[in-house]
Structures are given as structure tokens and as C-alpha cells.
């Protein structure tokens, strides 16, 4: 047993040493993020998740309010799948009634997920031939302006991003678990919903069976559907309109940056045509195997951020892990290609000498 442990440590020495460095970096990141905890975050998206949880406890349907709107103007409607609203209600039910105590609890949850994303990136990007990228990925994730800003405004996005990153990382070896984690991510916040076709393409490319694709789609849809059933029964129209509101709402962003639909004076569903065309092109490129798994996910998220009429600062932190994973994927493939070419060149030299 001791001999096996010693052998394992020797084989993974570099990974363990760098892992200790990552732990120190994570502690520094935690200390920096804790500085934001004294800020008042009332009015943030997460604050309204607390509000919706309170409405559920009062017997009010959070998805009914949109029935009094025009499907264009945003009045802080409940637009996510309901899992986090339900968890919000449960958290209040067990004693965290006031927003201050409620958000105090979730700050720990968000920070834990933030730090866990850094560790996941380290594990997924580690390579003996490109170990510097692993440290770069961790440092970039923890200390870039968008992650810090998302932490400052207590964005709940850290939870679904962690689930998405782990799902992407384990898809090859643990497919069902990966699909379930991705389903969990969507049930909390469906920002990554346009990656669903990628998962189905991966499944088909792996199995070449349409039956498995259907099963994979059911796995992905499982948790959002289960969480949504009570509200579908409660008020079907209100729930469907609330979820669809993101596709019809007027353009809004935190930076006053214009998108092509605004410049071309397109609105509503027609205004979403440019982004849909680009999504289809990205799916087709992946179908042709022109992109790797992480690169395809990065491209889809980049299209969402670059062309979606609605843009908030927390959207950027969805792209950053995918960018780092795609860079690692590219470097590993380049390294393997160099090794193959070198080996081929040596073989040809030996043949020529003979």
C-alpha cells in the first residue's frame, strides 16, 4: 500500500506541487472576494431570486406577473427555470427569512463554487508539456475583472458555471453524469441552453445511434422539467411566457454597446435571426469535426455574448472558462501533432539510412 502511494506521488509530483500553488492562489482569491461581502446588493438579479422565493412561500406564482406585461419591457420577471427559486424558498423556510441573512448564506455557496471552478480548470488543463497554462488558467479565472465584478454583485452564475465546466470535462468518461450535471446547470440558470445541440452531436458522434441521442436529450431536459412541473400545472401560460420572454424582450445591456439587430432596426423574434444563423453555422462546423469539444462550446458562448441583444456583466464569466479550456485543448492537440510528426520524421530517417 505504501509502495503504491509512493509510486503514485512520484508519478504525479508536478501535479501535486502545482496543486499546492493553486491552493495558495485560491486562498488569496477567497480573501479578496470576502472584501465584497459588506456591500449592499439589493436590486441585483440574485436579490430578485430571494424575492421570488418569498412569493412562493406566500402562495404566489412568480411566473404570473408577466401576464400583465407586454413581453417587451423588463419588469424583473422570473425568467429562469424555477429550481433556484424553489431552493430560495426552501432556504427561507428553514430560517433565512431576511435578505441579509439569506444572502450571507449564499455568499459562502457562491464563493465555494467560484473557487471550485478554479480547481476544475487546473485539473482539466494540466499537462506536463504545458503546465504553465494550468496556472495561467487559475490566475486568469480568479482575478479577471468580470469574475471579480460577478462576485461583487453576488451573481448566482457561479453555481451553473461550475456544473457546466465539470460536465464538459467528464463527458468522455462519464457521459450520463455529465448530461445530468448539464441538466442541473440549466435548471438553475439556462444561459448555456444553446450548447444543448453540441451535447447531442457529441452523443451521436460517439454512439452513431439516434436512440442514444433521444435518451441524452431526455437526461438534459430531466431536471428543468421536474423543477418546472408545479408551475406548469399552476399557470401554464404564465410559465411559458416567462421563459420565452428572453427571446422577445427589448435590447438591454450594461455598456450601451449596439448589436447588429439594433443597427439594422430589427426587433422581437426577427431581431434574433442573426444570432440563430451563427448558432447553426457553429453546430454545423462542429458536426464536420472542425472544432474540438471545448472550442465548440466556447464559440457558441461567444456568439451568445456577441450577438444577444441582452448583455450583462455576469455573462462574460460564462465565456472565460471555455476560452481557457479551448486554449488547453488546442495546445494539447498541437503538442500531440508535433510528437507524431517527430516520430514520423525519425522513422523516415531510419528507413533512408537503411
Question: Could you please describe the fold and organization of this structure?
Answer:
The protein is mainly alpha-helical. It has one domain (41-334). The protein is built from 16 helices and 2 strands. The protein has a two-stranded parallel sheet with strand order 1-2. Helix 2 (13-34) runs antiparallel to helix 5 (99-125), helix 6 (131-143) runs antiparallel to helix 16 and helix 15 runs antiparallel to helix 16 (316-353). The longest helix has 38 residues, at 316-353. The chain is globular, with a radius of gyration of 23 Å. The mean pLDDT is 91.
The tally of strands reads 2
Rounded to an integer, what's the Rg over CA atoms?
A: 23 Å
Strand order in the largest sheet: 1-2
Q: Please, what is the average pLDDT?
A: 91
Number of domains: 1
- Kindly estimate the percentage of residues that lie in beta strands according to DSSP: under 5%
Helical stretch tally: 16
Runs in which pLDDT lies below 50 for 5 or more consecutive residues are: none
User: Residue share in helices?
Assistant: over 70%
Described by the principal axes of the CA atoms, the overall outline is globular
What characterizes the major β-sheet?
2 strands, parallel
What structural class do helix, strand and pairing data support? mainly alpha
Distance between the termini: 48 Å
Order of helices and strands: HHHHHHHHHHHHEHHHEH
